[in-house]
Hints:
By secondary structure, the chain is α/β, with parallel strands linked by helices. The protein has a domain at 18-42 and 89-209. It contains seven helices and seven strands. The chain has a seven-stranded mixed β-sheet with strand order 1-7-6-2-5-3-4. The longest helix has 17 residues, at 2-18. It is globular. It starts with a helix and ends with a helix.
Amino acid sequence: MIYSLAVIFFKSFFKLFFRTRLIGIENIPVDGPLIFAANHSSYADPPLIGSSVKRPVYFIAKKELFDVPLLNWLIEKMHAFPVDRGTADISALKNAIKILTAGNALLIFPEGTRYKKGKKIKLKNGAAMLAVATGAYVVPVAILNSDRLFKMPRLILKFGVPVKFGAGRDYRSITEEIMSRIESLKTGSPAADDSTAYGNNAKNEDNNSK
């Protein structure tokens, strides 16, 4: 109930004040385990994505937010769960796997924290690990202009074609490919033509079965 009300509020808020534009929304699978992997520049990014798609989205949030009274209650209702960014948080990993194996959608920022222009960030392999472990498709998402909200820019979300990553590749190379797809979305269109893309993979399986 609270999640649904929050989605309505944020969707209206972003549309009214930031004229939200969604590109490639048709690329999002309607069911099954799914990872939204996006660039991260603002605290507004999680509610922006969560309120822009039709599927409920779960979030990973830094554990410090759960120490704040009332806020911890609210973000839990918003499908967030804590992660200790300073350690290999096994509990958070188990929660994420449980969410995905139940067929839900999970938002992850491979950058691990909000990116500031000119600052070098070490990418996190969480999205890659979870994609391989659960077989979830990964939808790369490019968020444009959320780094300058005070200037009231038009917010643009570009959803790329879902991609599946199988075992056999190291997590770092998968993470780098995900970020490469996100960067390509920033300046290009949300389309792909490869055998790992959602739909193309299904067609290949059909052809192989003949």
